[in-house]
Design brief:
By secondary structure, the chain is an alpha/beta fold. Helices cover about 55% and strands about 15% of the residues. It binds SN-glycerol-3-phosphate (G3P).
Length: about 220
C-alpha cells in the first residue's frame, strides 16, 4: 500500500519525505490557498522535486472538457511525476478519456460513490479519490464506499487505483489497508499520529532508564 501526503505545505512535505515512508503527494486548490501560494506552477514543481519520482497530484480549475484538456496538458508539462486532478463530472470524465488515450495520468477527484468510481474507471482514470471524511461529515459510511470500489474494481480486473482521500484519522488508514485500497493520502497530522503509541514511549523510557542505571553501576 502506498502512503501519500495531502498538503500544500512545503515544510510538511519535506519532513514527511525525510522520514522515508511517503510514496507520493496530493494537493487541491484549498490546500494551496491555505498556504498562500500564488505561484501555483512553482509550488507544484517544488513538490514534484521533493517527492520525485513519486506521483504528485495537481488540480485543474476549469469545468468543461474543452478547457480541461489544454489545462491538463499545461499541468502535465510541469514535471515528469505530475498527475492531473480532474473533477468527477461528465465534462471531467470526457477530458479524462482523451487524456488517458494520450498517456497523461489522471486522478479523478471528488468521488463520493461506487457508481461514480465505475464511471471514472470506464473513462480510463489512473486514480480515483473517494472522499471518506466528507461522507462521514454527512453521517454516511465513507469507508464502505472505499470497500465497494475496491471490490468492484477487483471483480473486473480494473487497473484504476483507489486513493482513500479526505482522511481524518489513523483508523481510516488501517481500514483502507485492510480493504486493499491502493493508496491513502494523509494530512501531515494524521501521518504523525501513525507513529504514536503510549506503550512505545513508556517502553523506550524504561529501556533508556535501565541502560543509564547500568552505566552508573
Ligand atoms: O485532497 C483531497 C482531500 O483529501 C481533501 O480532504 O479534508 O478537505 O475533506 P478534506
Amino acid at each position: 500500500m502506498q502512503l501519500w501526503i495531502d498538503t500544500g505545505n512545503l515544510e510538511e512535505i519535506r519532513t514527511a519525505q525525510s522520514w522515508g515512508v511517503i510514496d507520493g503527494a496530493t494537493t487541491n486548490p484549498t490546500l494551496i490557498a491555505k498556504e498562500g501560494h500564488k505561484d501555483f506552477k512553482g509550488v507544484i514543481q517544488e513538490i514534484c522535486s521533493i517527492i520525485h519520482p513519486g506521483p504528485v497530484s495537481a488540480e485543474t480549475v476549469t469545468t468543461t472538457a474543452e478547457k480541461l484538456i489544454p489545462e491538463a496538458h499545461e499541468i502535465a508539462s510541469w514535471a515528469p511525476n505530475v498527475v492531473v486532478k480532474i473533477p468527477l463530472i461528465p465534462e471531467g470524465l470526457k477530458a479524462v478519456k482523451v487524456l488517458s488515450g494520450e498517456g497523461i495520468r489522471t486522478n479523478v477527484t471528488l468521488c463520493f460513490s461506487p457508481a461514480q468510481a465505475l464511471l471514472a474507471a470506464k473513462a480510463g482514470a489512473t486514480y480515483v479519490s473517494p472522499f471518506v471524511g466528507r461522507l462521514e461529515d454527512r453521517n454516511e459510511d465513507g469507508m464502505r464506499v472505499v470497500e465497494d470500489i475496491v471490490d468492484i474494481y477487483a471483480n473486473y480486473g480494473i487497473a484504476t487505483q483507489v486513493i482513500t482521500a479526505s482522511i481524518r484519522d489513523t483508523l481510516h488508514v488501517t481500514q483502507a489497508a485492510l480493504m486493499g485500497a491502493h493508496i491513502a493520502t494523509l494530512p501531515f497530522a494524521v501521518l504523525k499520529r501513525m507513529y504514536d503509541h503510549p506503550l512505545t514511549d513508556i517502553g523506550l523510557e524504561g529501556f533508556l532508564a535501565d541502560w543509564r542505571k547500568l552505566q552508573e553501576s
